[in-house]
Amino acid sequence: MAQTTEQRYRVAPVRPRSRQWPFPLNLYQHAVGRKWVMAVTGIGLIGFVLVHMVGNLHVYESPARMYEYAESLRTLGGGLVPTGAILWLMRAGLLSMFVLHLHSAITLSRMSGNASEKAAMVTGAKKYEGGRDHVAATYASRTMRWTGPIIALFVLYHLADLTWGWWLGDDFVAGDPYHNVATSLGALPVAILYVVANMALAWHIFHGAWSMFQSLGVNNPRY
Question: For labelling, which of 2, 11, 70, 146 has a CA lying 20 to 30 Å from the CA of 161?
Fold first, then answer.
């Protein structure tokens, strides 16, 4: 009897706690956290695209105005910091946002695929999104998977073309953005490439905005 009671009330062994990450890293382990990261970095990248576009419109004014714009970026800080320091900090922040956006997109795609397979085995469903947003979410995710890699490859080409001067070769003139832009886009294949890439970017932003508002809770039926 005593042995039976002891077996009935035997205390289970205490398992060691799993490692606890800081809150931001712990949140990033879940799909909700990664959607937030992708949404916030998406807002930052859209802001950069708008500022970059407006700044480059100076190319239609004159070479001097384009040079002044480029020089104003280099001299941000007004002598309080070394020349180019703030510009490099901005580049580092932009690169960080780009990497986080890319990583969260890839890992979310994998998580979505795993969830879809499990749901299909249990309920026969093909996707875990529900309701009237299912079709839009599926279509948006498909287009993002195509336009995302196109944009990533174009960014690398754009840097090699107009920032590092690898593609222009001897025609590249450091410190003369107007000359470099005019020379590069003067070649018809390059101009077509830029048009196609910017169309992919516009498509990506258009459909990404829907997902971004969903992740941040802005696209809510109540309002």
Answer: 146
